[in-house]
Design brief:
about 25% helix, 5-stranded antiparallel sheet, about 35% strand, alpha+beta
Length: about 100
């Protein structure tokens, strides 16, 4: 390999590492589920609110939400009792009971 090509490859590696470092600094959770243009942000009304895999109290718990977490609202269940959210703070997506979502 020519030395000029080695330099380009090393430069690409350095740029990739810098990108990973920036992502880690900004918070990897932000990369897990990119923002949607129509996201509406709010927060959780409570401490330790269960985020569930489906819109049901019998669905498995995939995470917990706290009042200082930023939530992106993604959907509402057919019966209007559940909100699909993405917890920007933790990177968890799931469903919370409608009473625990606040604008």
């Amino acid at each position: 390999m020519k030395s000029e090509n080695r330099g380009k490859t090393a430069g690409k590696r350095a740029a990739a590492m810098a990108g990973l470092l920036a992502a880690a600094t900004l918070g990897g959770a932000a990369l897990a589920a990119p923002a949607h243009a129509d996201d509406v942000y709010g927060h959780c009304r409570g401490e330790g609110v269960r985020i569930r895999a489906a819109a049901s109290t019998s669905a498995s718990v995939v995470g917990l939400c706290y009042s200082d977490h930023r939530l992106a609202h993604r959907d509402v269940s057919g019966d209007g009792q559940w909100d699909k959210v993405y917890d920007v703070t933790t990177g968890v997506s799931g469903w919370i009971s409608h009473g625990y979502w606040s604008w």
